[in-house]
């Protein structure tokens, strides 16, 4: 009996590791040295142009492998990094590496692709955010329109004015701004009228629910219509089935991303992927 109780207590912690305070503390501690110890890598998730069926570009997604903690998913550690502001150097590292990846592709002859980089609101609120972004794109000599910043509403933005000016400035330069996970945030519709953006990225939760007969089909069609009405591009993430693909295509979704096409890939795998795609087109 006592043994059973002991086990269930233990299991309780195991079942919900994300809420384990000691794990959170470990994550916080290990994050401090993770950049210096080169524990982060990036994966790249292809996005397709729905009309042409060709690759539009890639979303850069961070991966963390720590000797103590093993692989920690971004959904678990980004939140911690936002709280203690480690997200600032980590975010700069992501942007720098994503632009270098794109430059590498260009130099290998794979031109015309774009890169989407996830940006935390904490980064956006820094005084030097605009300079950091512009300097990084310039450093790698890339055209501004090949960069898209994906902003997630993980935090309520209070000072819209400041953020507004920064995003407008970057957009005037040609940099794209996507509202990520659209539909799930604190106030998606408020964001629509207060934040400047070029792209709406529909959350994968909506796409996952998409089956022929479900009401979600109407919901997605409506979100895409809203996007078109405010002159933005609409992207769907989490596309896993042919059925979802067909539905999104019928509803004029501009870009598609998901496991149906590919999982997030390493840089080497991307080059391989592009090479085989090129061969298919020339033979
Ligand atoms: P997100 O920006 O919404 O990225 C999309 C997430 O959905 C990624 O998970 C991606 O792997 C996953 N995904 C895309 N298509 C499919 C699909 O068809 N099926 C399934 N099951 N999953 C799919 P990931 O890489 O675990 O990232 C989770 C979140 O962590 C991201 O959501 C983003 O909010 C955050 N994140 C990732 N990298 C960064 C980063 O460099 N900086 C910041 N600030 N946040 C990041
Ligand atoms: Mg994203
Ligand atoms: Mg998303
Ligand atoms: Mg997300």
UniProtKB/TrEMBL annotation:
Coiled coil: none annotated. Signal peptide: none annotated. It is found in: Cell membrane. Residues 24-278 form the EAL domain. This is GGDEF domain-containing protein. The chain holds residues 508 to 790 of 790 of the full protein.
């Amino acid at each position: 009996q006592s043994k059973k109780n002991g086990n269930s207590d233990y299991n309780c912690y195991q079942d919900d590791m994300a809420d384990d305070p000691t794990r959170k503390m470990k994550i916080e501690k290990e994050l401090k040295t993770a950049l210096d110890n080169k524990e982060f890598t990036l994966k790249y998730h292809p996005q397709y142009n729905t009309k042409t069926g060709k690759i539009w570009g890639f979303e850069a997604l961070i991966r963390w492998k720590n000797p103590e903690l093993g692989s920690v998913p971004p959904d678990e550690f980004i939140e911690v990094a936002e709280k203690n502001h480690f997200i600032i150097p980590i975010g700069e590292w992501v942007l720098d590496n994503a632009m270098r990846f794109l430059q590498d592709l260009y130099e290998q002859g794979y031109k015309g692709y774009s890169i989407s980089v996830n940006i935390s609101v904490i980064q956006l609120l820094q005084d030097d955010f605009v300079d950091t972004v512009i300097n990084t794109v310039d450093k790698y000599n890339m055209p501004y329109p090949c960069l898209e910043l994906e902003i997630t509403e993980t935090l309520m933005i209070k000072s819209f004015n400041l953020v507004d000016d920064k995003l407008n400035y970057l957009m005037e330069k040609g940099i794209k701004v996507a509202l990520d996970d659209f539909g799930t945030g604190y106030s998606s519709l408020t964001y629509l009228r207060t934040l400047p953006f070029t792209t709406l990225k529909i959350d994968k939760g909506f796409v996952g629910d998409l089956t022929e007969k479900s009401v979600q089909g109407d919901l997605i069609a409506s979100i895409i219509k809203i996007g078109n009405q405010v002159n933005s591009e609409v992207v769907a993430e989490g596309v896993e089935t042919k059925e979802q693909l067909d539905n999104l295509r019928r509803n004029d979704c501009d870009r598609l991303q998901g496991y149906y096409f590919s999982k997030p890939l390493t840089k080497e795998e991307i080059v391989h992927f592009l090479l085989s795609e090129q061969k298919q087109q020339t033979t």
